[in-house]
Amino acid sequence: MVTDDLVLGRQVCFALYAASRALTDVYRPILDEFGLTYPQYLVLLVLWERGDDVPTVSELGAALRLDSGTLSPLLKRLEAAGVLVRSRSARDERRVEVRLTDAGRALRERMCGVPLRVARATGLTEAELIGLRDTLTRVTETIHRQREK
Amino acid sequence: MVTDDLVLGRQVCFALYAASRALTDVYRPILDEFGLTYPQYLVLLVLWERGDDVPTVSELGAALRLDSGTLSPLLKRLEAAGVLVRSRSARDERRVEVRLTDAGRALRERMCGVPLRVARATGLTEAELIGLRDTLTRVTETIHRQREK
DNA sequence: AGCAACTTAGTTGCGCACAACTTAATCGGT
DNA sequence: ACCGATTAAGTTGTGCGCAACTAAGTTGCT
User: Fold this and answer.
1) Taking CB atoms and an 8 Å cut-off, how many pairs form between chains A and B?
2) Are B123 and A139 in contact (CB under 8 A)?
3) What is the per-residue pLDDT for B26?
4) CATH number, domain at B107?
5) Which of B16, B27, B114 should be substituted to probe chain A, the one whose Cβ sees the most A Cβ atoms within 10 Å?
6) Which nucleotide has its C1' atom closest to residue A78's CA?
7) What is the tens place of the pLDDT at every residue in A51-104?
8) Do A143 and B2 touch (CB under 8 A)?
């Protein structure tokens, strides 16, 4: 029966939407201790990971799948907070390079316990977390691959 | 090493955030045909499911885990679009009852193919979808149970 | 060299999410 | 019956997320 497919509880989409917001709820008070929002934290993860390989705004966007409409004001706030600096590339004035400040690098040490605190709140085992992550990653990549055609 | 835990690709949180947005990307053009956004569609799912059991704003909020700050303007837009009507309860003037119009009920038939179209775009089998949904639902409930303490 | 096509960031506008607050109605204890 | 506490919906303000657009710089073709 077609009708049953429309029931809220049966939809994977709602489960994904609800779980994503629930996890953000877990992050919020934790990240609040550091004056960060969740998307801002994701930007820092990319910058920490890159190290000396300084990304541009669009490279950050490729990593997080966010466009300049989202990133420009977000990066402006992170710059105002003193964790990073934006500067035009000398060899290509269109590009803006995003560099951590010392304060931004120092945050990495202070926040190293965050992922574990969040993982515990999910109530899943490590194996379940890995399985979940891999399934989700596969879904995301399938969708993006189809959109590129 | 603590450092490895902070790498973006290893984080379940990012996988969840990315998958949720990717799935919304799948919905957007489909729902656009009906003039709806994704959260608006979720509200309709609840209303269709309830049938004659007319929910209040806060009952909708409990089903979708959204507060009046989100729902009030959203419902106002759906009312302006003609798919539902809001009216103060006669027996408790604080409550606002949310009722489908004929147009809102008619949308259900027109949209019955939507879930299947979206499910196909994920590239997962039916069994994988069910497994994913159940894992996500478990995560969400674990988090909410902990928050209530 | 000149110029059209493209790339990169940024801006604007809209719709969520959510915290904090306001307003109005109901409940509960005395 | 009164009045403080609670409940329900709405409002305000902030920060995403994304579409559409703008401004400025670079590339490539002739």
Assistant:
1) 184
2) yes
3) 93
4) 1.10.10.10
5) B16
6) D15
7) 999 999 999 999 999 999 999 999 999 999 999 999 999 999 999 999 999 999
8) no
Residue B139 lies in a domain: no
CA distance B128 to chain A (A): 8
Q: How far apart (Å, rounded) are the C-alpha atoms in residues B147 and A121?
A: 10
Those residues with Cβ within 8 angstroms of residue B85's Cβ, 6 or more apart along the chain or in another chain: B79, B98, B99, B101
Neighbours of A88 (CB within 10 A): 10
Q: Measuring CA to CA, how many Å separate A63 from each of A43, A44, A56?
A: 9, 12, 11
Q: Is residue B128 part of a domain?
A: no
Nearest to B10 by CA among A129, A86, A40, A78: A129
What pLDDT digit, counting tens, does each position of A17-40 carry? 999 999 999 999 999 999 999 999
CB A40 within 8 A of CB A77: yes
Test mutation, A132, A142, A144, chain B, max B CBs within 10 A: A132
Total of domains in chain B: 1
